[in-house]
Design a protein that fits this description.
single chain; about 475 residues; mainly alpha; 3-stranded mixed β-sheet; 3-stranded antiparallel β-sheet; 19 helices; 6 strands; about 5% strand
Length: about 475
């Protein structure tokens, strides 16, 4: 373009310098022609420069648009790939029981017991997959459903906005199921049909005339349909204070939801009788028109405390082992995070040993602060230790007798009277007569005297188990007075 500008300048000078004589000889026309060609070349070059600059900007915009479109295409491709993997997993999870047929016993340990001929189902499915005409129909239908969902703007961006993974899966599943059902209904051979086929008809086809084999199958089926939360029978039958005797726990109900079949009413009745006779207890039979291809067995056990579960007993044992082992403080912190768990009530009914260990300190305190009194037991006429409490209106309740001495009372502690003793002691300790340091010191002296009296009753044997229990309980009673427990 620089050459064209130079020639243009030279041409202008030639035109300006051309005289009349040179003009007569045609020099001016030649100069004009040369200048015209120079200008043509100049404007062509200028046009090329403008075109190049414009193309550069267009390419920049095009590259940005292509990058943006690539992002939309990649996202769309990822959605399609995810949908493909979803359907592949679904395909792999179905009809994968191996080569089974109606003559074989199904796997009763599975939550869903399948009763079908896998070879025939696979054969029919493969025939559908290889039918090009049927596949073209399904593909076109699914494509049209996706296009309808996009609206009028058929771009990858619209696909990503309106047809995300859940929507795509729903469209494809719904469309393919409808088309598969239409194709399935075209099958003429009834043995090749497997969608919506009555389970009653298949069972009758398999076990008709073989009542004993059918009974065995039903019995085993019901046996495997039990609860998966085993109970400890000793806990189910346990009777103790705090456990109402007349309240029934572990109530079991069993329900069979069976499709209704007017064509095979006798066989349905036979099945119902076998289900009822396959277990002890009441079995409810419900006839349904919803799913002809399913028989649902529902076993429910409710109204049970956690303590009756075998796994709860196992976990409790492992818990005690861990917090009793070395470095128990760290184990307690790791398990409870906050506190040591003693503020939580136990899931299990406490044993007599547990009650004695926990409430014996309160028994000692109850004796020294006169919460436990001495009175005549009308049942035997002897003087015994007794607890007298009052109701909400201030009237005395029936006395609770604990035996002639503290060593007798230790064997009569239960969850009910222990709670009464603890509550009464804690209430009295808050009164002015027992809350001062001087009075607490007097109570400690009385506790020491009671422990010494127990030792005397046990022949001054320092290793006597009963004495050792009261000795340890006295130490804990001291801590209670200090507010440490």
């Amino acid at each position: 373009m620089e050459d064209a500008l130079t020639h243009s300048g030279e041409n202008k000078r030639k035109i300006a310098d051309t005289g009349k004589i040179s003009e007569l000889f045609g020099q001016l026309d030649k100069a004009f022609d040369a200048h015209a060609m120079t200008l043509e070349e100049l404007y062509i070059n200028r046009t090329m420069v403008e075109g190049y600059n414009f193309a550069k900007k267009v390419l920049e915009e095009l590259i940005n648009s292509l990058d943006e479109m690539k992002g939309h295409v990649d996202r769309c491709g990822n959605t399609l790939g995810e949908a493909l993997r979803h359907f592949q997993r679904a395909i792999d999870s179905r009809c994968n029981d191996g080569e089974i047929n109606l003559k074989q016993q199904p796997d009763l340990k599975q939550q869903l017991v399948r009763f079908y001929d896998s070879g025939r189902v696979k054969s029919v499915t493969n025939a559908f997959a290889k039918d090009s005409a049927e596949q073209k129909t399904q593909t076109a239908t699914a494509r049209n459903k996706i296009i309808d969902k996009m609206g009028d703007n058929h771009t990858f961006s619209t696909v990503n906005q309106r047809i995300q993974f859940p929507t795509l899966v729903d469209i494809l599943e719904e469309t393919c199921y409808e088309n598969a059902l239409i194709a399935h209904n075209k099958i003429r051979d009834g043995k090749d049909k497997f969608i919506g086929v009555s389970i009653i008809e298949k069972l009758r086809e398999r076990y008709d005339g073989n009542d004993q084999e059918l009974k065995t199958f039903i019995t085993n089926l019901v046996k495997h349909a039990g609860n998966y939360f085993p109970f400890m029978q000793q806990e189910v039958l346990r009777s103790a204070p705090g456990i109402p005797r007349d309240v029934q726990i572990c109530v079991n109900t069993f329900t069979v939801i069976m499709p209704r079949s007017t064509e095979h009413a006798e066989f349905v009745k036979q099945l119902s009788d076998m289900f009822r006779g396959s277990r002890i207890g009441n079995t409810e039979i419900i006839y349904s028109d919803a799913k002809p291809n399913e028989i649902t067995l529902v076993g429910i056990t409710n109204l049970f405390p956690l303590r009756v579960g075998e796994i709860v007993g196992y976990l409790s044992e492992k818990y005690e082992q861990r917090i009793s082992a070395a470095n128990s403080s760290r184990a307690t912190l790791e398990i409870h995070i906050e506190g040591d768990g003693t503020r939580h009530p136990s899931l299990f009914v406490p044993t007599s040993g547990d009650i004695q260990e926990k409430f014996l300190p309160y028994l000692l305190l109850a004796k020294v602060i006169d919460f436990i009194q001495t009175g005549k037991n009308p049942s035997n006429g002897s003087k015994e230790l007794m607890i007298i409490t009052r109701d909400d209106e201030g009237f005395e309740n029936e006395p609770v007798f604990l035996g002639k001495s503290l060593t007798d009372a230790i064997h009569k502690l239960d969850i009910v009277n222990s709670g009464m003793i603890k509550g009464g002691v804690l209430k009295l300790l808050k009164t002015n007569d027992n809350s001062s340091d001087a009075n607490k010191e007097k109570l400690r002296e009385k506790i020491l005297q009671q422990v010494a009296l127990i030792k005397t009753e046990r022949d001054n044997n320092a290793t006597d188990p009963i004495y050792r229990q009261f000795n340890d309980a006295g130490k804990k009673a001291f801590k209670i007075l200090k507010g440490e427990e």
